[in-house]
Amino acid sequence: MIEKTYEELIVGEKAFVEKTITETDVYLYAGICGDFSWLHVNEMRAGSGHFKARIVHGILLLGLISNIVGNHLPGAGTVYESQQARFLRPCFFNDTIRAEVEVVELLPRGRVKLRTCCYNQHGDMIIEGEAVAIPPRRHVIQVE
């Protein structure tokens, strides 16, 4: 786990994670949030719908962004202040998603503006957005 303070961040700095989203991931997420929409869990009905297949919850993918912000960039101790997102394309079961975060601006009062995106295995951007986060002011000693 990485932990960067506001002063250590550099505009243009990036981090990413990759994950293949499985049927199990979707069902576990549906169980946590209670969203059992047929778009996500009913293969037959979704197959005759707009996307011709079940799709992954868009908010599940934003969890990959949260992973980066909280564990990689800025990292441990960061507080998420806001997230704006546009869902450009669907994510299907077994798509491999690359979530990316880039530092775009160091804001006043110790905040940082981040570009947040998700791409599928074909390189298509499926989510684009922007977040504001509050990195830690100092390093915190972690007790194991």
Description:
By secondary structure, the chain is an alpha+beta fold. The chain has a domain at 6-21 and 57-134: Hotdog Thioesterase (Thiol Ester Dehydrase, Chain A). 24% of the residues lie in helices and 33% in strands. The chain has four helices and five strands; from the N terminus they run E-H-H-H-H-E-E-E-E. It has helices spanning 23-33, 38-41, 43-47, 58-71; strands spanning 14-20, 79-87, 96-107, 111-119, 125-134. The protein has a five-stranded antiparallel β-sheet, covered by helices on one side. The longest helix is centred in the middle third of the chain and has 14 residues, at 58-71. The two termini are 13 Å apart. The model has no long low-confidence stretch (mean pLDDT 95).
Calculate the terminal CA-CA distance, rounded to whole Å. Answer: 13 Å
Q: Which homologous superfamily in CATH is the superfamily of the domain at 6-21 and 57-134?
A: Hotdog Thioesterase
Tell me the Rg in angstroms.
17 Å
What's the CATH architecture of the domain at 6-21 and 57-134? Answer: Roll
Number of helices: 4
Q: Give the total of beta strands.
A: 5
What is the residue-averaged pLDDT? 95
CATH class of the domain at 6-21 and 57-134: Alpha Beta
Adjacency order of strands in the biggest sheet: 1-3-4-5-2
Inertia-based shape: elongated
Order of helices and strands: EHHHHEEEE
Features of this protein?
Thiol Ester Dehydrase, Chain A, five-stranded antiparallel β-sheet, 5 strands, 24% helix, 33% strand, elongated
